[in-house]
Amino acid sequence: MTTRTLIVLRHAKAVHVPGLADRERPLTARGEHDARRAGEALTGMDLRPDLVLCSPSTRTRQTAGLALPDADIVIEPGIYEAYPDELLALIRQSAPEVRTLALVGHNPGVHELVMGLTARDGDSGFPPGAFAVIEAEGEWAEFDAGRGVSRWSPKDD
Fold first, then answer.
1. Structural domain of residue 20, as residue ranges?
2. What is the number of other CB atoms lying within 10 angstroms of the CB of residue 29?
3. Minimal CA–CA distance to 109: which of 49, 31, 57, 46?
4. Which residues of 112-148 are buried (b: 16+ CB within 10 A; e: fewer)?
5. Chain segment 41-76, per-residue pLDDT in tens
6. Rounded CA gap, 131 and 57, in Å?
7. Among 3, 90, 10, which residue's Cα sits nearest to residue 57?
């Protein structure tokens, strides 16, 4: 049976500018730094996604580009403001040849997705720039609760 690895990455810290549309908010300098650190942590874990599904917002695209610069990044409009069940439906549409998939999105959807897939109680949150790695056996079309392999947050260091 094939092991599938899902990386769920929340966008890094973004600016709050009055009048700027939410989708257009860019990363702060700290956010850029943390996105690079997330990428370094993933590289250190020898995790290189075959495909990245990314929300169309500026901050998620910047996070994906900084954390996963060599990956195939696909902008997926359905990730923006998605509920966990909608995110899981997108994940389940992934092609069989994709072994490691990254999803770059927003809270609360990504955090609730991670909670649902790993059945963690007393979770400490999912701050900007954090990621979780989840493994499950089988095909993406059947992807469901798996084992949480690791979590990383810029606040951990």
1. 3-156
2. 9
3. 57
4. bbbbebbeeeeeeebbbbbbbbbebeeebeebeebeb
5. 999 999 999 999 999 999 999 999 999 999 999 999
6. 18
7. 10
Q: Which of 47, 46, 14 is nearest to 31 (CA)?
A: 14
Rounded to an integer, what distance in angstroms lies between the CA atom of residue 100 and that of residue 7?
A: 8
Portion of the chain with pLDDT greater than 90, in percent: 84
Lowest mean pLDDT among 1-5, 39-43, 69-73, 83-87: 1-5
Q: Pick from 6, 1, 24, 8: which is nearest to 112 by CA? A: 8
Q: 127 pLDDT exceeds 70? A: yes
> What is the total count of domains within the chain?
1
Which CATH number covers residue 8?
Answer: 3.40.50.1240
Q: How far apart, in whole angstroms, are the C-alpha atoms of residue 102 and residue 63?
A: 12
Backbone φ, ψ for residue 56 (5° rounding): -80, -5
